[in-house]
């Protein structure tokens, strides 16, 4: 048995092959049947005609239902009309398991229904394409960072204290102690950067955010590079190179999937470094000039971010936000301490912030005073303060949100489709 993946069929033209997979769709008339098969690697049309296979096989083919699992044999034929360039002239079909009343049919379903059936919905061509692109984005990120001298370090998931503020922590218990699911591995990555120079983490993070928006997940994956002896400006250059490398990789490797999604790839092709930069001050002035009622000192909402990003054909850095609403660890601008050396990277086309990053405070006294201002207990963070006592250096880092990046590159309306089993506000099933 010459077992072949559907994705590789084009290399087997003229050969008799076996495919293991599922029936996606079927059309049959008296004399001929067309069966769309999928095996995870791709989709192919199988054709049977009564003249080739006889009435029994054709009769079996006409009973096949959606998502029935099958093992089929046939000859690979070139077919220029097919997206994959081939079709299968089927000779035999073995039913492994007959699927009855598969709920996710080709008709339109509501979002709640699809989310309740997410375990089945991921078999759909669109969902498969998204999960494939997500996996390629992950590959591109790792390959860029691994190739640029970064070492992966894994921070803990269970933590004793917060990184990004205390309002959205998931609380749990750790034997007799209080503990929290990590919001960000950053503080640990700062320790790791002092040990290994350039590091990154890649893992799930958790935020009990009561926001029901198309950009928010409760559990999302974050890539957090942290770099010793790297300034805010130098960090921005690494960020734009990383994003450009991800987009280039997806354009190179995911043409089929992008076309399944109907993604306008010309919008992606313009994503090359360098990216435009705007200060928070400039952004506020711009928004005011467009009639937004926003004052200096206020954070942006989604409509503000969308309007700012719409000015550019590639992601834009908004730099130097007011210290008042940013995290305690961000380095104040020495010339203007009311703003911090940070930047958010806003994706084009209204996808919002995909990266948040900053240079970190490296002076122990300044850091201690920030702990006091933010009401953070010295005890909990004393290890973090140690990093400023024993060979402190200027250092910077950032967090790239994987799901928002996937949503943007795939051109999706909502982050719920960017991960196999999304955790959303009030949705923990399946
Ligand atoms: O801007 P954030 O909160 O930054 C940090 O956590 C820093 N400690 C990162 C660092 O400097 N090491 O989050 C970083 C990114 C955001 O830009 C966004 O893309 C994503 O994480 N993100 C979310 N994605 C989906 N759902 C949510 N609820 C998200 N919250 C943040
Ligand atoms: Mg942020």
CATH superfamily of the largest domain: Bira Bifunctional Protein, Domain 2
Query: Judging from the principal axes of the Cα atoms, what is the shape?
Result: elongated
Range of strand content = 25-35%
Biggest β-sheet strands, sense, barrel: 8 strands, mixed
Number of continuous helical runs: 13
Query: Largest beta sheet: what is the strand line-up?
Result: 6-10-11-18-17-16-13-12
Task: State the distance separating the first and last CA atoms.
Answer: 37 Å
**Given the helix and strand composition, which structural class is it?**
alpha+beta
Give a quick precis of the structure:
The protein is an alpha+beta fold.
What layout of secondary structure does this protein have?
Blueprint (H helix, E strand, L loop, with lengths): L15 E13 L3 E7 L4 E7 H14 L5 E10 L7 E12 L13 H6 L1 H4 L3 H22 L4 E2 L5 E2 L11 E4 L2 E5 L4 H11 L1 E9 L12 E10 L3 H22 L1 H6 L4 H5 L7 E3 H10 L12 H8 L6 E4 L12 E2 L2 E5 L1 E6 L4 E8 L4 H10 L4 H9 L8 E7 H9 L20
Parallel strand pairs: 3-5, 6-10, 12-13
Antiparallel strand pairs: 1-2, 1-4, 2-3, 4-5, 7-9, 8-9, 10-11, 11-18, 13-16, 14-15, 16-17, 17-18
